[in-house]
User: What shape does this take?
Amino acid sequence: MQEAMINRAKQLLADGTVNRVIGWKRGEFVYDVTPAIFETAEELDAEFVYDDFTAANVSKYLVKECKKEGKILAFLKPCDTYSFNQLTKEHRVVRDNVYIIGIPGGPKLDAEKIKAKGITGILGAKNDNGTFVIETLYGEEKMPYYEALSTKCESCKSKKHVVYDELIGDDGEVLESDRFDMVEKLENMSAQERYDFWREQLSKCIRCNACRNVCPACTCEKCVFDNPDSGVENKAPADSFEENMFHIIRAFHVAGRCTDCGECSRVCPQNIPLHLLNRKFIKDINSLYGNYQAGEDTTSRAPLNDYKTDDCEASIVHERGVE
Amino acid sequence: MLKISLDRINELFEAISASQTLYIPTDREDGAAEYRKYESGMKLSNALNTVRSAKDFFFPQTENLVDFKMEGKNIEVIDIRKESEDFVIFGARACDARSFTILDKVFLAEPVDSYYKTRREHGTVVTMACTRPSETCFCGVFGIDATAPEGDAACWSDGESIFFEAHNEKGKKFIDSISSLLEDGDTAKLEETREKTRAILKKLPLAGLSTESFGGERMMEHFNSEKWGELSESCLGCGTCTFVCPTCQCYDIKDFNTGHGIKRFRCWDSCMYSDFTKMAHGNPRLTQLERFRQRFMHKLVYFPANNNGEFGCVGCGRCLSKCPISMNIVKVMKALEVK
Assistant: This one.
């Protein structure tokens, strides 16, 4: 796959279709790849990588990149195409300035999941029919491959590319996923249990803003939390209330626009399952307004941006209430 | 050397925590380790390091400094500091222990930061030598020996027992306070363990990293390097690297109006943030490139320029593990290396 991608990128650079490529760059170890822009065939040959660890969604970078001169080639995984479409819908990217090649997606892996097993000194890793064989400074270690999956790939919603100019490999289908299982579990908890769950998780927050900054739905030029004049700007949560509210407010802000790409949970240095907040909103929107997948298309009106006479009444929130 | 059998470690923790607050690294449900206040039965983590560094104990993420009350034209200044309690940090690694030396240079230099100083005086740092360094470790590059950590007292594990050694008066006092639990032990197996660890340290993938290209002498050369554009192009501008870093020391001071007075507090700042060092005239670093450059120039050039060549990094590897886009000081050093 990687070789086919590099070859096609070189062709598109050579024939002038694009003047640069966004993809992933090899790191120091097997897992530490970095999103990067490539401008020449030499750079692609030397550093371009597409493997188990290229989980990062590059769609958001295109907000900035599509404003530059010339067209950029972007390799998008199925989930990344939903983010791109949503950005197109919100007029945050210029579709014509991006040449999209759809590539097969994950599952992608997360090195932190390997380390959480106590495996350290990772020098190499390969998948041997479902067994992940890891070469370390302390000898060979083995673990089930699926246990190294990035949280965002644990319940894949779609293998289908919703936007592309061409594909490498086959297109897939929208999948029946179990992604709302944990949300249901949380819904079935008592209010106190649910509160305890979220306090335990959100109290880990160090307010690094990685979740916000990586989020393709968070593209405000100036976030209210970064604006010293807003009155709510803060670099650290002053208390547990602020710890909770930052994430809850953010989830409200991206509700109806979040495609469930899972980047927030992937980047969280404290392993907070932030995607569950977003999934709760997605699940509620589905049940209140009918099934809706943000990023599926670029023209439909989103439930929260639209008014229909048969919309559920606002009081439904009151009726459902809290315990 | 004085030792205690590993299976009696919780007896030791009970004894320490009976007289002072004790913090130990312990595993969370998600597998990551963090320092927690010791409570009966808490298990010492086997993890190499905690996600958040040990700097939090001396330089917490947020801290109230002073309160003001206004009545008419009078301002009453209220010192809100309470008597600090003695505490012990058990199990800090060599990298974090060195980070305290670096933070001391910042906070204990004139004008002395009395908030930091008080905590330093009340805290006893008991370090634990590493036995299983990770591929992301590069403390040796900064002259740190992971098998001989600094701290008020240090300890070593040979897999069966933990051995203790004091480095100063505070450390001696600590060991005296637990001496009834300790016995003299043979260090032959310990020496073997240390030898094995030293061999691993030499084999670490980042062991060959060189600091020779850095320091105050190359300030403008590095500042003007064309590499910063490429290095910073995918930086998200989040604060992860700065907040997990044991040596990042920048903070912001703000006033919060409670409606009944003013609370002046400080909190960690991050050079990655768009309002970093924003002043009345505006912001001196308008682009992410400039802010990104600041972080690495600070650690590799400005800090050594002001501190007799000492670098502002301890090679703990937290930023290598935690950066959402895997950009880090090692990649920066390799890119800027002068050959």
Q: What stands out?
A: The radius of gyration of chain A is 21 Å.
